[in-house]
Amino acid sequence: MGIIEKQAIKGTAWSYMGVLLGFITTGILLPRILSTEENGLLKLLVVYSALFGQFAGLGFNRVTTMLFTYFRDKEKKHNGFLFLAIVVAAVGFVVSVLLLILLKKYIIGKEHSALFTEYFYYIIPLIVVVLLFTVFDGYYKVLYNAVIGTVLKEFFQRLVILVAIVLLYFKLVDFHGFIILYIIAFTIPTLILMFSLMREGHFSLRPQLGFLTRTFSKKIASVSFFGILTSFSGKLGLNIDSIMINSIIGISQTGIYAITYFFGSIILIPARAITKISGVVIADSWKHNDLDNINQIYYKSCLNQFIFAILLFIGIWANIHNVFRILPDEYLPGKYVILFIAIGSVIQMLGGMNSVVISLSKYYKVQTYFMMVLVALLLVTNLVLIPKYGIIGAAMASVISNLVFNIMKFLFLWIKFGFQPYNFKFILIIAFAALAFMAGYLIPVMDNLVPDILIRSSVIAIVFGTLILLFKISNEISNKFLALMALIRK
After folding, report:
1. Distant-in-sequence contacts of 330-333, Cβ < 8 A, 24+ apart
2. N or C: which end of the chain has fewer CB within 10 A?
3. Residues 319, 326: Cα–Cα separation, whole Å
4. Are 412 and 431 members of one domain?
5. How many angstroms separate the CA atoms of 488 and 151, rounded?
6. Same domain, 339 and 457
7. Where are the beta strands (DSSP E) in 17-164?
8. Alpha carbons 51 and 109: distance in angstroms, whole number
9. 409 and 363 in a common domain
C-alpha cells in the first residue's frame, strides 16, 4: 500500500469522524442554541481569519510543498527551513493585521451589525493560530505525516467546539465565554502541532542563511509571490459567497447560508486528506520528471473522488426531507443552497488533483491565473445572482464558477501534458448513482427520523457499492473490499 493510499485512508477516516462531530454541532446544536445572526458571526470570524491568515503566510506554504524537497536533510535540521517559514509568517502577520484594521468599515458591511462590530477584533488572535497552524501543518505534511494535522483540525478542534456548545447550552458560560472557547478550540491544535514537532526533533529555529544561494532565493521569491496570489485567491474563492451575502443582505442570512452550506460541503471531505499527502508525492515526481506517476495519481484521484462524491450527493439529496426535520424552520430557505453547493462539490471532486498537479509543475503560474479568473467569476456571478435570488443565488454562483474553473484546468493538463483521466467508467458511475438514488427515493417516508435516515442511506450505499464492485470500476476500492472481507473471515 503506497504512502498516498495509507495516509488518505487514515486522514479520511478521521475527517469523517470530524464530520460526525460537525453534524452534531453545525447541523443540530448551533441552529437550535444560537440565533441566525450569532451563527453568521461565527461564520464571519472563521472566514476573515482564514482569509487574512492565508494572506499572512505570504505564499510560503507553496514554497513548503514545492521546494522543501531541496531543503530536506534531517541531520542539518532541514537547513533552517522552519526558521525561514516563521520569519516570513511574522512579517506577513503584521501586514495582514494592518490591512484588517484599514478595511474594517468595508468588512463589517452595509448593515453595520452591532454583534459583528463588537467581536471584530477577535479576528486577530484567530489569524495568529490559523497562520501558525498552516505553517506547522505544511511542515509536517512534507515530512510525510499529513494525518496529524487532519486529526487535530477535523476531529479534535470540533470536539473542543462541541464541549463549548454544551457549556453554553447548560448556561455554564454566556455567549461571550463561548466565543473565547471557540478561539481556544482553534489554538489548542496549533500548540499540539508545535510541541509534537519539538518532541520529534523537527522544531529548529536555527537559521542557515548560507544555504540560500542567490539563484535559489530568487526561486523562493518567485514561488512565494505566485503562492500569495494563488492561495489568497483560493481562500477568497471559498469564502467570497459569505462575504458578499453579509455585505448585500446581512449577517442573519449569512448564518442561514453557513449552516446549510455545511450539508452540501460534506462531499469535499475525502479530498482533503488525499490532497495533503498527494502534493508531496507529486512534487517529488515533478522533480524527477515522472509524468507517468503524476498521470496515474491524477486519474485515480478523479475516479475515486468522483465515486465517493456522487455517493454522498445522492445520499444527501435523498435525505433532504430529513435534513429539514433536523434544522429549525428559519433555515428552510437554504434547501436549494444545499443542492447547488453539493453539485459544485461534486464538480470539484470530479477534477481530482488537477490544481495540485498544475501548481507544483513548472507552470505553477498558470494555476495563479486560473485562480484569479475563478475569483472574478465568483465576484460577477454573486453580484448578479445574490440580489435576485438571495443565498440560493450565491450557491448557484459557486456552481457556475467552479464548472468553468475545472474545465480550464482539465483543458490545460490535456493540451500541455496529454493527461486525460476520463473514460467510460465515469458514465457508468453516473448511471449507477441514478439507480441507487431511485432505490432510496422510492422508500416511503417514515415517521421516525433515525430509521428513515439509516434505511434509506443503507439501501443507496448497498445498491451503488454493489454495482461499483461488480463492474470493477475502481481497483483501489475493490482491493480494499476484498481485504476487508478477508479480515472478517479471520
Report:
1. 330/36, 330/256, 331/31, 331/36, 331/256, 331/259, 331/260, 333/256, 333/390, 333/391, 333/392
2. C
3. 11
4. no
5. 27
6. no
7. none
8. 16
9. yes
* Measured distance CA(331)–CA(177) in Å, rounded: 26
Whether 180 and 119 have beta carbons less than 8 Å apart is answered as: no
Quote the pTM value.
0.85
Nearest to 217 by CA among 53, 79, 375, 13: 79
Q: How far is CA 309 from CA 299, 348, 442, in A?
A: 15, 9, 21
Q: How far apart are CA 241 and CA 31, in angstroms?
A: 20
Considering the domain architecture, whether residues 333 and 452 belong to the same structural domain is answered as: no
Of all helices (H) and strands (E), which one includes residue 387? helix 364-389
Same domain? 278 vs 171: yes
DSSP calls for 89-103: HHHHHHHHHHHHHHT
When the pLDDT of each residue in the chain is averaged and rounded to a whole number, the result is: 88
User: Distance between CA atoms of 94 and 90, rounded to whole angstroms?
Assistant: 7
Please tell me the predicted confidence (pLDDT) of residue 397.
97
Q: What share of the chain is helix, strand, coil (3-state, %, to 5)?
A: 85, 0, 15
Q: Please tell me the distance from the alpha carbon of residue 258 to that of residue 26, in angstroms, as a whole number.
A: 9
Q: Answer for the pair 248, 384: CB distance below 8 angstroms, yes or no.
A: no
- Sign, CA dihedral 166-168-173-177, equals positive
What's residue 409's pLDDT?
A: 97
Same domain assignment for residues 350 and 485: no
All residue ranges of the chain with pLDDT < 70 are 1-16, 69, 73, 75-79, 109-112, 144-146, 209-211, 272-280, 490
Q: Residue 407's pLDDT is what?
A: 97
Convert the pLDDT of each residue in 258-314 to its tens digit.
Answer: 999 999 998 987 776 666 566 667 877 887 899 999 999 999 999 999 999 999 999
Number of separate domains in the chain:
2
Polymer length of the chain = 490
C-alpha cell at 279: 502534493
Query: In 3D, which of 412, 83, 143, 418 has the Cα closest to residue 279?
Result: 143
Query: Which residues contact residue 165 at a Cβ distance below 8 angstroms, ignoring those fewer than 6 apart?
Result: 25, 29, 30, 33, 178
**pLDDT tens-digit map of 177-208:** 999 999 999 999 999 988 988 888 777 777 77
- Which residues span the domain enclosing 259? 3-422
Do 468 and 337 share a domain, yes or no?
A: no
Closest CA to 86 of 193, 231, 163, 216: 193
